[in-house]
């Protein structure tokens, strides 16, 4: 393993922070406050971590100016406006990167494929006819790139990935292991009591800086393409059906499923396990909370939800009994009726009083 | 890539439609109305696409007789009763098919496996002892077929698939990439505070014309087999647990999960992300809408649902507050009480009136 | 295929049961009551299977003493206190085990990796620098073990698995096909309207006797590790996000998702498709029923639920109409108001009576 050793002033410079303390302190890791050792740097993400920071063994801390003054147990700091962002930057410094370049002898590459000289193609990778792999792109072992797939530069494709359906991938795209891209969309025409398969002729287009997790399925379009625009980030086990379009910088958490031909706008956030039906539109800047079911267009930015959090099971069972009665309870009419009855009662009482 | 060029009269014949216009018009693609160019044919799926069709650049349109008369901007048509079905048929004509046959030199095939001469076995495929692969079946690269698995003819198995557990697969079955078939069912006996593994001895049987998407898990049975009957179609990321049986022509959309030993009938439709508990029966011709939870037998054909669509999040939060109160609100009793009180009120009012 | 032939007295001894009947009866399979033939042994899991047992063709039955007396159609028994546990034990006897040992010629093993002599490494497996594979561990074909991963003894890793992120795996761990372990956690810092990737520097630690199904994603931690403690069992298509910790002997059914930094205690059971939000704690001995959403800490052992089972769709639609009104219906206040009105009514009626 390659060693990562930096002096505190080097790290301060990388995050454009102010160095306080011993500039030549050598640090060889980034760690959590709890796990950090004297050779590690850690970051303090706000007031609520103050106690943890005071007790941390970290050799140096990334903090705001306000926090620094309270951390009397420490002497070495990098002071920045946004410690979380500085941490995000330093993760890249301490990351173990894939340094290999070239094509492993066991990779099977079609003679018509064009592979950049400084790409890396791992063992047992299979690359089909007319494929393109751009500069500095890494394809890990056992992955399969089918005919006509094009991949840009500076991409990272992990192992056991299948890319087919003539998918076109732009630059700086990351695809994690065991993901299937460009597979056949789920298109069938009912015919004489059976399902008649519709071969899928569209493709998948993936923009710059897109990130796709492991075990995802992103299907090719039926006729037009499935499209992930620049900056889309997708977690693990996500289903993107044929002809879905996802706008720039939208984030989709694990286990979401987007049904066919749905369009999602820019800068949206779908929390975990959200389901979205097919053939609808969701506008820009929409947040959907976890496990929600989206069944209709969303045309106004905002936050949307469905489902409920946990109930103690006996409470929940009694609630469900009531829910099953609810359809036959005309709630708003009852509320009006009760108000009306209340008025009647008061009128009767006043009549009775007057007749005393 | 193989070129697909057809004259309009050839295409009309393939879908048994009536040709209107230029019979020797050459078309080399099937496209959506919006994306079609003059060398493409498109289809018009009903009245609601009339405007799109009028503005389409498609060289020819597949339409019904009624629609044709309104499409004054176009001159080349194939007239059929069901344009969607004609489109489904033509997708097969324009599809890029795998034409390779034979066994790639890097495939590892057990000497006791029987591979049909005109099958295709891709690079780095591993096929175990006593396996059978039928005529015209295609197995893409890096897939693994474990000992004792049998696959019929005209099947398509994409890359990174694992088939184990002595699974038996009939003819014309399609299995998409990264799917796991025949894996060990989740069977454990609780014993002295720990989980004691139950080795799974059953298998998986897959009928003719079954289609399974990518990233699915279909487990082998504990003792008897897990069974997918003829014509079952399954989308991506679907879990089929041990000893599940699914009836003919049932369709299961993405992200569904069927727990162990459940039986689902024929011609059912499970929309996306439906969950079905174990050890229940669902009869034929049942539709379950998206994200529903099925916790009990369904013995009558029909449509079933649970969950709700999205609420604006603040509305939803107030709704959940009420839901948590609901268990203690005797709804139907209250409705009766209110009715009774209303009657009492009216009786009192009439008494008061009579005593005036 | 290796033959499994045992005499009835051998099987009785293996499960420490009492043999009744023909001690030298040869049995070559374990089967369900329904499918069993005279050369099979079956088990009777309680009274409710009595009729099935009476009609079974099984050559021998595993039963309790009470059940035995009622099974007048049978003569060969193994009598035990817990037939289900005896069955669990015998599945291991009849299981077809992987007997191969050694390294297939096509496996790519880094010179710095240490592989135990009696491990099995399948075709096209790729093992990176500084890896360790322990004694009697089986790694099936096409799996990839990335640099720095360590695997203990007696483990079983099926095909198409990817293990990366310097994951450390203890002994007797089973990982099924197409699972991704140690992939990058979904960590991004929002920055200037885009998502800035946080490289993940933590790892995954997996205890003894852990079982992970197929198509699972278990991500490496951001700084600290993601941890599965001893005896955890996980079904298929499960998402375990970065920095999750799962306590001993907790069982997680298929399609669950646990969001980042959540801690789950010991001996918990999560039924199918449960979702748990990030950064919460669930204590020991908690059961979560199927498809529940857990949004808050659970600090008391017990059973928790959300969602509802299926409604007939028209009933459900009317229910949802009411649910959407519910936010504006002050339920507990109304119940009090109705009680109060009832009291008022009674007081009025008594007044009227007294004035007659």
From TrEMBL, chains A, B, C:
GO molecular-function terms, A-Z: N-acyltransferase activity; UDP-3-O-[(3R)-3-hydroxyacyl]-glucosamine N-acyltransferase activity
Enzyme's top EC category: transferase
GO biological process: lipid A biosynthetic process
Region forming the signal peptide: none
Protein's pathway: Bacterial outer membrane biogenesis; LPS lipid A biosynthesis
Catalytic activity, EC: 2.3.1.191
Reaction catalysis annotation: a UDP-3-O-[(3R)-3-hydroxyacyl]-alpha-D-glucosamine + a (3R)-hydroxyacyl-[ACP] = a UDP-2-N,3-O-bis[(3R)-3-hydroxyacyl]-alpha-D-glucosamine + holo-[ACP] + H(+)
Domain Mannose-1-phosphate guanyltransferase C-terminal, first and last residues per copy: 107-182
Alphabetical list of Pfam families matching this protein: GMPPB_C, Hexapep, Hexapep_2, LpxD
InterPro entries xrefs: GMPPB_C, Hexapep, LpxD, Trimer_LpxA-like_sf, UDP_GlcNAc_AcTrfase_non-rep
Active site: residue positions: 242 (proton acceptor)
Annotated ranges, domain UDP-3-O-[3-hydroxymyristoyl] glucosamine N-acyltransferase non-repeat region: 24-92
Alphabetically ordered keywords of this record: Acyltransferase, Lipid A biosynthesis, Lipid biosynthesis, Lipid metabolism, Repeat, Transferase
Gene Ontology cellular component terms for the protein in this record: membrane
Family annotation (HAMAP family): LpxD
PANTHER family for this protein: UDP-3-O-ACYLGLUCOSAMINE N-ACYLTRANSFERASE, UDP-3-O-ACYLGLUCOSAMINE N-ACYLTRANSFERASE 1, MITOCHONDRIAL-RELATED
Record function comment: Catalyzes the N-acylation of UDP-3-O-acylglucosamine using 3-hydroxyacyl-ACP as the acyl donor. Is involved in the biosynthesis of lipid A, a phosphorylated glycolipid that anchors the lipopolysaccharide to the outer membrane of the cell.
Subunit structure: Homotrimer.
Family listed: Belongs to the transferase hexapeptide repeat family. LpxD subfamily.
Name of the protein described by the UniProt record: UDP-3-O-acylglucosamine N-acyltransferase
Gene (UniProt): lpxD
